[in-house]
Amino acid sequence: MAKTNKTKYALLGVLSLGPGSGYDIKKFCDFSIGHFWNENYGHIYPVLKQMEAEELVTKTTEHTEGRPDRNVYFITDTGRDELRHWLLQPVEHEPVRFELILKIFFSADIPVENTVEKILQGKKEHEELLGKYLEIEKLLQSEEGYKGNPGLPFWLATINYGKHHVRAHIDWCIETLAMLEEVKHQ
Amino acid sequence: MAKTNKTKYALLGVLSLGPGSGYDIKKFCDFSIGHFWNENYGHIYPVLKQMEAEELVTKTTEHTEGRPDRNVYFITDTGRDELRHWLLQPVEHEPVRFELILKIFFSADIPVENTVEKILQGKKEHEELLGKYLEIEKLLQSEEGYKGNPGLPFWLATINYGKHHVRAHIDWCIETLAMLEEVKHQ
DNA sequence: CTTGAACATATCATAGTGATATATTATTAT
DNA sequence: ATAATAATATATCACTATGATATGTTCAAG
Known about the structure:
By secondary structure, chain A is mainly α. Helices cover 63% and strands 6% of the residues of chain A. Chain A has 7 helices and 2 strands.
């Protein structure tokens, strides 16, 4: 059996919150779930077509002046069933590939300064991410529209996931920088 | 420009530690770098061929009785240069896809028990992983062969990375389970 | 004496990535 | 005023990655 198409379920999930075009979906992904889920046009458009053929979504085309037609997709009842079914399934094992750690593993013969540079760069990026997460968290916890929404605790949990992982990364950076200092003075 | 082939550099890295067959490389990946880097045969064999054409590796074929020929690959000086060049480059941005978190995000209408089940399962798996990492760490720090090896601090850093991330995940599980308890009693 | 793990290479269908093509409108900077 | 660029919108391409499967032997454990 080949790999299952995860994009399909991600798109069903997004469309379950409201109809939208491929472009809208991409925007939503980048803004709301981008910190744990990546989507790109190269996959969104073909998968939407495939989902239409499977009757998981329907399409209405809005004609606009100047710009290309807007293909707005709506989730069907079949689509909601398929999403629900997938949500109830246990999570599949996911392969990992952390390029930074791969480089560290093979970096014994590389000038320490270069490795330090890489880790400092990653630390900075993760600190910025942490700031972003704290802002989103504050926004979600504020009055604006979200209060009482049954999805809120779940959205906060995804932000909390980001916070934990980013902090773990920052802590690792600090410890690894200390290790590299020791290596330098040997 | 298409994505750069990361497998190539991973294989160069493994072969820089010593020659081996595709099968040997796969074993090494699973055993030594599997906690942060995934490789599979579907990519190893074709990429080794491609690397041979690029003269990054050379091949010698060992004939054996019964079993298929063993194609043993050796890294060339060109290969070492290419590896070194890649190691010095900054780390590229990597897309993320955490299926568990995607499911959590869309789980407001799913029975809480089902979500609890998923998180408990993930927590258990990560606790087992943590145990495994602590064992590997102890092994690396013990006398057996590794003492004084210039790679040791770097290998320990990759294990430390695993420890931090696994602990972050476990902590998130605990907090999320508490959140779900609250949701249940509302 | 049979089941299964280890040894060893290879291919296939499917899935995912990032870049690019195309074209208009609105906004911002010089 | 005008040039640059960001936003809106869809689509495709080349390449990379995954997991399953095919093929076939040897050796150890039950």
